[in-house]
Specification:
Layout (H helix, E strand, L loop, with lengths): L1 H10 L9 H17 L5 H10 L4 H14 L18
Helix pairs in contact: 2-3
Length: about 90
């Protein structure tokens, strides 16, 4: 249900916060760490980390819109994967 609510808000242009980017980033990091421990590649999580590391969720939306606008028949350049993080 939360996804449907957020989707409706985005379609309506309501960019108010619903989830803190720091919380989403923490979840992405936990999943990526588990994948690395299991020896599983996680390139999409690395892209998510790169998008979230220095932005709030509205910044992520703006970054995705800018990449979409910059696509001219070729794939948009993916961000570099993040540097390895020290163990907690």
């Amino acid at each position: 249900m939360k996804l449907a609510v957020k989707a409706a808000k985005l379609l309506a242009g309501d960019l108010g916060a619903q989830a803190a980017a720091a919380d989403v980033l923490r979840t992405v990091d936990l999943i990526a760490d588990a994948a690395r421990t299991a020896g599983v590649a996680s390139p999409l999580l690395d892209v998510c980390h790169a998008l979230l590391a220095e932005r709030d969720m509205i910044g992520v939306l703006a970054a995705l819109e800018a990449r979409t606008a910059g696509v001219t028949g070729a794939a948009a350049a993916a961000p570099a994967p993040p540097a390895p993080r020290p163990a907690p």
